[in-house]
UniProtKB/TrEMBL annotation:
Names of the cofactor(s): Mg(2+)
Region (Disordered), start-end ranges: 205-225
NCBIfam families on file: MTHFS_bact
Name of the protein: 5-formyltetrahydrofolate cyclo-ligase
Name of a matching Pfam family: 5-FTHF_cyc-lig
Family of this protein: Belongs to the 5-formyltetrahydrofolate cyclo-ligase family.
GO molecular function, one term: 5-formyltetrahydrofolate cyclo-ligase activity
Keyword ATP-binding part of the UniProt annotation: yes
Superkingdom per UniProt: Bacteria
EC primary class: ligase
Length: 225
């Protein structure tokens, strides 16, 4: 049942305003700045994939100013071990996420809102539970691992199916790792972020360090946030 309390409304308004501010910052990034950030994020994620060697992982196709660049799936797939599977999300009518295997750029189609999705067989909403590495988008993440998405709730539903021991990672621009974010009960935390300046860092006391991911500390680049 939706929460209609004053406190819940304050949180929703705070989320809306924070989203608007973060999106404005992303839109203000120059083309060269976006390209440089995408290259660094890709390099860090490739190093992580090669270290973990997952047999199945998930990612997505970044759009617009999202960190990672539109060729992120191709880069990650090339880093996977032979026979491993990269799954990408397929947005359902109810805003939940189905999943399908990424087979290459020619296997993607436009799906509205700038999103590109795989055309292969749908594997079901629960297949994400079997992924060994889960890469998800967000506008920002705080130091406890709480993420702020675009408001549809799709990834919160998907993350609810992911075992707590699974490494979940969000690519961000450098100023999008913040001290705290407004949070609601349905919001699902992530275990790590990757930024151009600091690479992959574990958050919130999660299991990231068990995967060789360094913990985030106050020495990380969080100035001006």
């Amino acid at each position: 049942m939706p929460d209609f309390s004053d406190e819940a409304e304050v949180t929703r308004v705070a989320k809306r305003d924070t989203r608007a501010e973060l999106l404005a910052r992303r839109h203000a990034l120059t083309g060269p700045a976006r390209a440089a950030a995408a290259g660094r994020v890709q390099a860090e994620l490739v190093a992580l994939v090669r270290r973990l060697r997952p047999r199945r992982m998930t990612a997505y196709v970044p759009v617009g100013s999202e960190p990672g660049g539109p060729d992120l799936p191709a880069v990650l797939r090339a880093a996977l071990p032979s026979g491993a599977e990269l799954l990408l999300p397929v947005l359902r009518d109810d805003l939940d996420l189905d999943w399908a295997a990424y087979t290459g750029p020619d296997g993607l189609v436009a799906a509205g809102r700038g999103i590109r999705e795989p055309i292969g067989p749908r594997l079901g909403v629960t297949v994400v539970a079997g992924a060994e590495l889960v890469v998800v988008p967000a506008l920002a993440v705080d130091r406890q691992g709480r993420r702020l998405g675009r408001g549809g709730g799709s990834y919160d539903r998907a993350l609810a199916r992911v075992p707590t021991a699974t490494l979940t990672v969000v690519p961000l621009h450098d100023d999008e790792l913040v001290e705290a974010l407004p949070v609601e009960p349905h919001d699902r935390p992530v275990r790590a972020v990757v930024t151009p300046a600091d690479g992959v860092r574990a958050l919130g006391g999660g299991p990231g360090t068990a995967y060789g991911v360094a913990p985030h500390t106050s020495a990380g680049r969080t100035r001006g946030q």
